[in-house]
Amino acid sequence: MQHWHAISNVSGYLPESDDAAYPHDTWEDAQSDLIDQMDRAADFYAMGPEDDRATAALASLEEADRLVRAATRGRDFLTYTDDGGEHTIPTAWQIITCTEDCQPSL
Ligand SMILES: [Zn+2]
């Protein structure tokens, strides 16, 4: 049955949380999950040292948050954020449509 996943990861790396495997019944659930993941990432940078890296990462996440909130319902979504230089490649944030037989991870 068709469902959606909310995934954030650095290209070439496995997703950091098990959330990525979690199937959402509706696109809106995947959207709010992705927004939550962005919020958690922003909290992480906001708690750390206030430097250029954190500023870049927070600005990038703020823009990504705006984009996902404006995303077209039902369509796959992809955007990238700057992680402030932790990796040399950007972090990907996605809502993907899936028809595999995914089970919720425990
Ligand atoms: Zn799936």
- Care to count the β-strands? 3
Strand order of the largest sheet: 1-3-2
Radius of gyration: 14 Å
Average pLDDT, all residues: 89
Question: Low-confidence runs (pLDDT<50, min 5 residues)?
Answer: none
> Bound small molecules, which ones?
zinc ion
Form type: elongated
Task: Summarize the helix and strand pattern as letters.
Answer: EHHEE
How would a textbook summarize the main sheet? 3 strands, antiparallel
Number of helices: 2
Q: How would you classify the helix and strand content by structural class?
A: alpha+beta
What fraction of residues sit in β-strands?
Answer: 15-25%
Query: How many domains, as an integer?
Result: 1
Terminal CA distance: 20 Å
User: How much helicity do the residues have?
Assistant: 25-40%
Protein described:
By secondary structure, this protein is α+β, with helices and mostly antiparallel strands. The protein has one domain. 37% of the residues lie in helices and 20% in strands. The chain is built from 2 helices and 3 strands, in the order E-H-H-E-E. It has helices at residues 27-47, 52-69, and strands spanning 3-10, 77-81, 91-98. The protein has a 3-stranded antiparallel beta sheet. Helix 1 packs antiparallel against helix 2 (52-69). The longest helix is centred in the middle third of the chain and has 21 residues, at 27-47. It is elongated. Zinc ion (ZN) binds next to strand 1. Residues 3, 5, 23, 98, 100, 102 line the site of zinc ion.
Task: Give a brief outline of the structure.
By secondary structure, this protein is an alpha+beta fold.
